[in-house]
Give the backbone structure.
Amino acid sequence: MSKRQLLLLSSSNYHGHEFLQFARDWITDFLKKNNVSKILFIPYASTEPDSYTKYTEKVAKPLKEFGFDVEGIHESRDPVEAINNASAIFIGGGNTFHLLKTLYDKRIVEAIRSRVLDNGIPYIGSSAGTNVATVSINTTNDMPIVLPPTFYALQLLDFNINPHYLDPITDDKHRGETRAQRINEFHHINSSPVLGLREGSALLVDGDNATLIGHTKAILFCRNEDPQEFEPDSDLSFLVSSS
């Protein structure tokens, strides 16, 4: 049985709530269950110059209120050592391409994967951090502002996720592709299922069990099948049982 413990948020923001506050109970329960008091934050999705400290401080503020200490990986001289010593990892949102490239540049992809899958340390992802937890970043919404060595990601799961999933606006005048059409294009080439996580939702993975949690439904796209909607608290273990 897999040891992985994942909390994958569609976003760190949700309408009507301050940063991360909508997920307070999820994060607190998830970390306390795993006896975590300190989190290693990875801010590499940020593209602003010299922004890692500022981003880490932004994340640390609410997490401190929740009862947890936060350390930024950029504060360590050796990122691999920081991963190996971490009791929990949180990768935040931003640009997914920049994030993945930096994870490879820092040579920590395998270290994260091993710590999560082999040692069972908790992993929290939000937006881009959720994208990189999956098979690949092929279903991100972000622009490819940099080129990673590959689009394959941490592969903590063997399906893809589309964070910030948006439904078509029926009365809108925009005639560009909808999110569903983009995912359908992905499925012309790829067979991996894609879970569309609307803002306000998250996927909670405990070993070979998975549950949709949050305030909004999720939608699952599978190749050559009609999309399926899932209510909050739905059991999605069928997606991870073979991962």
About this structure: The chain has one domain: 5-239. The two ends are 10 Å apart (CA to CA). The CA atoms of residues 73 and 229 lie 37 Å apart. The chain has a mean pLDDT of 94.
